[in-house]
Amino acid sequence: MTCILFAFALGGTVNVSAQKADPESIYTKEGYKLVWADEFNNNGKPDATSWTHEQGFVRNEEAQWYQQDNAWCENGLLVIEGRKETRPNPGFKKESGDWRSNRENAEYTSSSIKTAGKHSWQYGRFVMRGKIDVSSGLWPAWWTLGVSGEWPSNGEIDMMEYYRGKLLANIAVGTSKKYQAEWHSNSKSIIELGGPEWVSKFHIWRMDWTEKDIALYIDEQLLIKVDMDSLYNKDGSNTHPFKQPHYMLLNLAMGGTNGGGLENTKFPNRFEVDYVRVYQK
């Protein structure tokens, strides 16, 4: 790997210091141009000009405490590591009814990084090459959220999500009930994809997001395609969460509302990412 980082601003140019040959030459033939990428080739912490870290207990009643220490770059890969380790919760309140504050300690740690406030995009081809661990209770994801509005009316796209033996592709919009989403989803079981042999390899996840539809792929296999006309919020606002820029997240969650039990899981575990790229026409 020889390439480091590409950056793009609307109305500007791509700043290229050393470019890796793009194996997806078909993208160029289809009119796409690389506008941003992180190849994770610099050893150390993720590039602070592109990524910020989430901190603490964040969402979905998940087991992990997010912290910066669990994400780093080495040998051309971004590593997000899940660990079983005790960390005091500084916001602990014994009588609290909030799951974020009523836990005296976190029993697991991990990392979640996002491009919020750094980079966001509206439409394009988004590509990630990565390798996931499918041990019990793990919940790795590569996804987007809209820059404006409250979830789920800001819109969510899960290009890669795994839990409980299934790989998922999801698109969410708002409904008339606060914090309740309308989901457009499809899943493939890991057994169906190839079982342990599939898990042992890196794979390519892709999203094609246009003014007409959103399509999600794994290794060029279409998982779901949804017309943009059906993705308006049903919250009475008549807003469209995918007619605005979205930012990107990479994280390894554990447990919580979907992840499952961690009692028999061996640690540490890793979600490894070779690159993330964004192309636009």
In one word, what is the shape?
Answer: globular
Radius of gyration: 19 Å
Mean pLDDT: 92
**What structural class results from the helix and strand content?**
mainly beta
CATH architecture: Sandwich
Tell me the fraction of residues in β-strands, as a range: 35-45%
CATH class: Mainly Beta
CATH topology descriptor? Jelly Rolls
Assembly type of the chains comes to single chain
Order of helices and strands: EEHEEEEEEEEEEEEHHEEEEHE
- Domain count, please report it: 1
Organism: Pedobacter panaciterrae
Pfam family, one: Glyco_hydro_16
Family: Belongs to the glycosyl hydrolase 16 family.
Domain GH16: 17-281
Note down, in words, how this protein is organized.
This protein has 281 residues and is mainly β. The protein has one domain (44-271): Jelly Rolls (Sandwich). Helix content is 6%, strand content 44%. It contains 4 helices and 19 strands. It has helices at 25-29, 190-193, 195-199, 256-259; strands at 5-7, 15-16, 33-38, 52-53, 64-66, 71-74, 77-88, 105-110, 112-114, 124-131, 138-146, 156-163, 166-174, 181-189, 203-209, 213-218, 221-227, 246-254, 269-280. The strands form 2 sheets. Strands 1, 2, 3, 5, 6, 7, 8, 10, 15, 16, 17 and 19 form a 12-stranded mixed β-sheet that branches. Strands 4-9-18-11-12-13-14 form a 7-stranded antiparallel β-sheet. Strand 6 and strand 7 form a beta hairpin. It comes from Pedobacter panaciterrae. GO terms for molecular function: hydrolase activity. Residues 17-281 form the GH16 domain. This is Glycoside hydrolase family 16 protein. Belongs to the glycosyl hydrolase 16 family.
